């Protein structure tokens, strides 16, 4: 058999990421590849840093995309900031907090876990108690937008508490950036990382990161070398740094960076506040439809993410069969449950470019049909109307 070119089907991506990528971004990625030290490319890198500072709402000079997905941004924060023996308080309320623990331990640090219920925000009082009990803690880490559950935590409050106990903070903003406010300077976040394939509407494979001067100070004063050569910021900055002449570190993913540049230009054109408002508006429309159908949200209203809607699976429904119908008959992908929530929830993403009324209505109509065919206990034929009413209001 001769293997031919790969032509993927056109899907609608409403899972936990990747989300739909705009044609503008895909087109930008198909432009001619340049050398990674070409002066024209270097100018583009400078613009990229400016655009990322805008997205993160920061003046941090050390703001750039790591050449690998969100997990690598996470790892970049931990390997650079955690030294062997450092005590790190990790607040966990879902899958991604568990990965933070892994990172701390692989850096030779001691992870003190503060466990919260899955589907709830991180509890500030529990963090405060943990800091009182561990006066030698150096870092506090938590996830802003827990993609495994759809819960949103209060970054400003948590960072404020951590700073009262002289801890640096690492905040996971993979799913939050572009979808809800992420204010790095106003909230005094020390180190943060994000991803391109969630609310930034770009392809997967890059991870924007930002470090403030306190985080940089900790990195500069390390007693031991950063254990990862690739992610050692002292070395990476030889390529991405602003002041010195750029030197080869690794070959940047040139065309992927064109895509992120375009995605950030689109975000700038729309405006951050408008992007946040759009995510909220489409979330409310989806919610109106889902609730009219009789489906229930996992997360209490005040702690819900507009871009990640976790819904309990109705009694007796084969959840995988529903997703299979959505994919085969509607070209629509929604997410299954992850970790402890596997088999219990669907995760409907309304992220970035995918957060639009057309997708809300498509998803509600498809769920109405699939659940109806599987004889699930829902109210049929009302979801789309309810969403339309909400959109018009
Ligand atoms: C998706 C995600 C990650 C990991 O990003 P990848 O690009 O898949 O490596 C980390 N944290 C959160 C909260 C995420 O949603």
Model description:
By secondary structure, this protein is of the alpha/beta class. The protein has 2 domains: 23-268, Aspartate Aminotransferase, domain 2, CATH 3.40.640.10; 271-392, Aspartate Aminotransferase, domain 1. Helix content is 41%, strand content 15%. The protein contains 13 helices and 13 strands. The chain has helices at 23-29, 39-56, 70-81, 95-106, 124-133, 155-164, 213-220, 233-240, 254-270, 272-293, 319-330, 357-373, 383-392; strands at 12-14, 62-66, 87-92, 110-115, 139-143, 145-146, 151-152, 168-172, 191-193, 207-211, 308-312, 332-336, 345-349. The strands form 3 sheets. The protein has a 7-stranded mixed sheet, with helices on both faces. α5 packs parallel to α6 (155-164) and α10 (272-293) runs antiparallel to α13. It starts with 11 loop residues before the first strand and ends with a helix. Bound molecules: pyridoxal-5'-phosphate (PLP). The site of pyridoxal-5'-phosphate (PLP) has 13 residues, from α3.
Q: Nutshell version of this structure?
A:
By secondary structure, the protein is α/β, with parallel strands linked by helices.
End-to-end separation in angstroms reads 56 Å
* CATH architecture heading of the largest domain: 3-Layer(aba) Sandwich
Q: Which regions contain 5 or more consecutive residues with pLDDT less than 50? A: none
Helix/sheet category:
alpha/beta
Number of strands: 13
Determine Rg (CA atoms, Å). Answer: 21 Å
Mean pLDDT: 97
For the record, the count of structural domains works out to: 2
């Amino acid at each position: 058999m001769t293997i031919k070119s790969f032509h993927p089907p056109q899907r609608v991506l409403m899972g936990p990421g990747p989300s739909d990528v705009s044609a503008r971004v895909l087109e930008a990625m198909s432009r001619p590849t340049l050398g990674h030290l070409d002066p024209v490319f270097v100018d583009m890198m400078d613009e990229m840093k400016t655009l990322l500072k805008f997205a993160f709402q920061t003046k941090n000079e050390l703001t750039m995309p790591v050449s690998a997905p969100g997990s690598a941004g996470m790892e970049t924060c931990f390997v650079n900031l955690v030294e062997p023996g450092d005590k790190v308080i990790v607040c966990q309320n879902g899958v991604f907090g568990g990965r933070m623990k892994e990172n701390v331990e692989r850096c030779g640090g001691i992870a003190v876990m503060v466990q919260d219920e899955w589907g709830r925000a991180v509890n500030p009082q529990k963090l405060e108690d943990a800091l009182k009990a561990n006066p030698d803690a150096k870092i506090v880490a938590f996830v802003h937008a827990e993609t495994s559950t759809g819960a949103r935590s209060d970054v400003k409050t948590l960072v404020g508490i951590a700073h009262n106990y002289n801890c640096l903070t690492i905040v996971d903003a993979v799913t939050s950036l572009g979808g809800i406010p992420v204010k790095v300077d106003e909230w005094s976040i020390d180190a943060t990382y994000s991803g391109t394939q969630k609310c930034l509407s770009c392809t997967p494979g890059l991870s924007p990161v930002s470090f403030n001067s306190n985080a940089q100070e900790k990195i500069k004063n390390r007693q031991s070398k950063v254990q990862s050569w690739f992610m050692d910021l002292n070395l990476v900055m030889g390529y991405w740094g602003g002041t010195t002449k750029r030197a080869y570190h690794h070959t940047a993913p040139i065309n992927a960076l064109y895509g992120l540049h375009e995605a950030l230009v689109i975000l700038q054109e729309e405006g951050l506040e408008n992007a946040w408002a759009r995510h909220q508006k489409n979330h409310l429309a989806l919610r109106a439809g889902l609730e009219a159908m009789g489906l229930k949200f996992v997360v209490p209203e005040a702690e819900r993410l507009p871009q990640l809607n976790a819904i309990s699976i109705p009694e007796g429904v084969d959840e995988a069969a529903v997703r299979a119908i959505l994919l085969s008959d509607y070209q629509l992908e929604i997410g299954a449950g992850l970790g402890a929530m596997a088999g219990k929830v669907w995760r409907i993403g309304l992220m970035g470019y995918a957060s639009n009324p057309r997708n809300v209505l498509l998803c509600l109509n498809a769920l109405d049909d699939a659940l109806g065919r599987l004889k699930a206990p829902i109210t049929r034929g009302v979801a789309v109307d309810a969403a339309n009413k909400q959109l018009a209001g």
